[in-house]
């Protein structure tokens, strides 16, 4: 079950990074932005807790942790720019 959750979070983070780099033409509404932001924070917390507690899926946990940092960083940067620019 943990491995499936990690794979789901990994797919969400990879999709968001690919969307940011390749610009699929999708525009997220406010509800999607709230959902994605909360998913990035949840994946960041969950993977860091799991990395500290267990070494069983440590490589998958490190991948989710690093992509969560990247996704959350890009997400906050883009929202900060949209607030500044109006």
Descriptive account of the structure:
The chain is mainly alpha-helical and 86 residues long. 85% of the residues lie in helices and 0% in strands. The protein contains three helices and no strands. The chain has helices at 2-22, 30-53, 58-85. Helix 1 (2-22) packs across helix 2, helix 1 (2-22) packs parallel to helix 3 (58-85) and helix 2 runs antiparallel to helix 3 (58-85).
Throw out a few tags for this protein.
single chain, 86 residues, mainly alpha, 3 helices, 85% helix, 0% strand
Shape: elongated
Tally the beta strands. 0
**Main sheet attributes: strand count, strand direction, barrel closure:** none
The value of Rg in angstroms is 14 Å
The proportion of strand residues reads: under 5%
What order do the helices and strands follow?
A: HHH
Assembly classification: single chain
Mean pLDDT: 86
Percent helix range? over 70%
Query: Structural class of the helix and strand makeup?
Result: mainly alpha
Unreliable residue stretches: none
Question: Counting H and I runs of at least 4 residues, what is the number of helices?
Answer: 3
- How far is the N terminus from the C terminus? 42 Å
Summed up, what is this model?
The chain is an all-alpha fold and 86 residues long. The protein has helices spanning 2-22, 30-53, 58-85. The protein has three helices and no strands.
